[in-house]
Amino acid sequence: MISKTKVNISQGSFHLLFWGWLIFFCSLAEYLLWKLTDYATPWLVWLLVIPGVFVSLIYGFVKGRKETVYTYATSIYVWTWMAFLFASIVLFIVVWENMQFVAPFILILAAMASFISGFIIKFRPLIIGAITFWIFALVAHFAAPSIAPLAVPAAMLTGYLIPGYILKYRKNHGSI
To answer: What pLDDT digit, counting tens, does each position of 43-101 carry?
Structure first.
């Protein structure tokens, strides 16, 4: 049963790649706008995340409706990421006036969801990616303000994009 769930979830490399590229782009764009321009509100690029949530939810809903087997492990996997979404929304509400400090906390939440997901599907690259999220959360918190924002795009590379492409490659070549 876990094996079947693993195969079904492996088809979801879309989410790792979608969110990896979206957050990579937003974080790098914000950093570049902040460092290289006089643009007063570089954080506005993060508004792209709002339609991203809807794209991700719709994709997951459509993909989930097509699945023939929906196991307990699949349910835990899905609700782990829904918990990440809910926790992120609450975090944004709580730190609304200090958004410049949110990156380490989001990376910590992403690490937790990725770590649990990696164990559910028994996929070591996602577990290692989660550990890199925790490391980059520390970098984002302790590094100098001029380079700390680069922890987020670096974390997206190691935490979502590399595991996402490995998962996609293995899925396309019949091994998970």
So the answer is: 899 999 999 999 999 998 888 788 777 788 888 988 999 999 999 999 999 988 887 78
- Candidates 149, 8, 157, 145; CA nearest to 72 is 8
CB-CB neighbours of 98 under 10 Å = 8
Predicted TM-score of the model (pTM)? 0.89
Residues 33, 149 contacting (CB under 8 angstroms): no
Residue 39 and residue 3: Cα distance in Å, rounded? 50
Please say whether the beta carbons of 114 and 129 come within 8 A: yes
Q: Which residues of 102-115 are buried (b: 16+ CB within 10 A; e: fewer)?
A: bbbbbbbbbbbbbb
Give the chain's domain count: 1
The CA distance from 76 to 71, in Å, is: 9
Q: Say how many C-beta atoms besides its own lie within 10 A of residue 90's C-beta.
A: 10
CA–centroid distance for 158 within its chain: 11
